[in-house]
Amino acid sequence: MLVDGVVRSNVVAGQDVHHQWGGVVPELASRAHQEHIVPVVHRALQEACMTKEQLSGIAFTQGPGLMGALLVGTCFARSMAQSLGVPLLAVDHVKGHVLAHFIQDGTPRPIPAFPFLNLTVSGGHTQLVLVRGPLDMEIIGTTLDDAAGEAFDKGAKILGLPYPGGPEIDRQGQGGDRKSFALPYPQVPDYDMSFSGIKSAFRNTVVNGSAKDPEFVAANLKNLCASLEGHIVDVLLRKLAKAGRALGVPRIAISGGVSANGALRAAVRALAQREGWECFIPPFAYCTDNAAMIAMAGHFMYAEKRFADLDTVPVTRF
C-alpha cells in the first residue's frame, strides 16, 4: 500500500513449491497466486492501517510474465477497482523495477535525477534503459536470447545447486577465483547483450571436467561459481559503461532480482566511482518482485491520469 508516494505496507507471499522442481512451474504459480492473493491484500490493508474504502486506485501487473499468474492478478484488480469505483492502473512489470528507485519507506535514501541509465536485470529480462522521466523510458539495449538471471539459474542447475540459483552462485562464489575458467565474450553490437553462449560454454566446462574427474564440481565449486558470476557481471558492466560514456549520462542505476547480487552491486559502485558518476541501487527488499514497485508505478500513472479500462487484459510480453 502506498500513501502519498510513501510505502505503508509491502507484503510478499513466497512460492516454495517451485524449489522441488528446480524452477518456476506456470500451473503451480497460478494456483499459488489464487491461494495467496486474498490473504495478501487483507494483510497489506491491516499493516497499512487502512480499509479498502480508503483506496484511491488499484495498480496491478499487466505483464510481462506468465499468463496464468497474470490472469489471477488482473481479474482480481479489475473486480476490486470496479467494486470500489476507483481507477485501475495497468503496470508494466519491467518498468516497475526501474521505478523501485523512487520508493520511500521512511528510511532516507537518494533518488536519481533525470535522466539516468538503468540496468534492469532479472530472471526473465535484461534491459539497458534510458530513463528521462517516471513514464518516459527508452530501451536502448536488451538481451538477444537468455536473460542474465536465467544464465545464473541455469548455471546453478548445471552445478546441482538448489533453486533459485542466482543467490546460490553468489554465495558459493565468495572467495573463489573468477579467472579460473575462461568463458567467451559475446560479440554483440551497440548496447545489446547475449548470454546463451556463456551458458553453453559453462555447461561444456562442467561436463568435460566431470568426464575426466567425477569430483570436478565439488573440488572446484567456488571457482566455477566465481567464474560464471564474474563473467556475467563483466558483460553487463561493459555495456553499462559504454552507454554511460557515449550518452554522457552521469547517473547509473541497477534494479531487478539480479541487482541483489553482491558482485554486481560492488562492480556498479566501482564503475561509478571510476567515472565520477552517481550510483543508485535499491534496498534488497525492492530488488526482487514486490508490490511496492508496482504501487510506485501506479502512483506516477495516477498523477498523469493514465487509467486502464475495466476490460484490460494481461499481456505476456510487450
Notes on the protein architecture:
The chain is of the alpha/beta class. It folds into two domains: 2-99 and 287-303, Nucleotidyltransferase, domain 5; 112-282, Nucleotidyltransferase, domain 5 (2-Layer Sandwich), CATH 3.30.420.40. Helix content is 45%, strand content 14%. The protein has nine helices and nine strands. It has helices spanning 26-47, 67-84, 93-98, 148-159, 165-172, 196-212, 216-247, 262-275, 291-303, and strands spanning 2-3, 6-7, 58-63, 88-92, 116-121, 126-133, 136-142, 251-255, 278-280. A five-stranded mixed beta sheet has the order 7-6-5-8-9. It has a two-stranded antiparallel ribbon with strand order 1-2. Helix 6 packs antiparallel against helix 7 (216-247) and helix 7 packs parallel to helix 8 (262-275). The chain is globular, with a radius of gyration of 20 Å. The relative contact order is 0.17.
